[in-house]
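[Primary structure, fold]
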Amino acid sequence: MKPHKIPESVLVVIHTSAMEVLLLERADRPGFWQSVTGSLDAPDEPLLLTAARELFEETGIQADGELIRLRDWGLSNIYEIYPVWRHRYAPGVTHNTEHVFSVCVPRDIPIVLSPREHLQHAWLPWLEAADRCFSSSNAEAILQLPRQLGN
C-alpha cells in the first residue's frame, strides 16, 4: 500500500524572459492544465529540494543554481484538496499548503514529460496560461508573475 501524501506541496511556474509560461496537461485528468506541482517526500524535505526534484521529474529541467535558478516567492497558499484526489491523503485531511516558486528558462529548453503524469505541454503567453489553468492558486501565481519579476 502506498503511503499517504503529505499535505504540503510546491508549485513551480516555469517561464521565459518574454513571459511565456509552460503548462502541462495532466494524464489522469485530460483537459486539466497546470504548472509543475508536487508534494514533499518527507515532512522535513527542504522546499527548494522538493521544487528542484519535481521540476526535473515532470519536465526534465535541471535547476543548476547558476543558469537555471529556482526562485522562492515566499508565498504559500492553503486550499481545499479536490475530493477526487483526497484518497491520496490520510483520512480527514482536506487542505494542502502550497509553496510557490518560479524558474526562468530559455524558450528552446528541451522538455521531457513524465508520461505517467502528463500528456503534453504548451508554451503560452502568461495571461492565456492563467486562463487555461484549472487550479485557481496556479492561475493566481501566473497572474502575479509580472510583479514578481519587477515588470
In short: The longest strand covers residues 70-80. The chain has one domain: 8-149. The chain has four helices and seven strands.
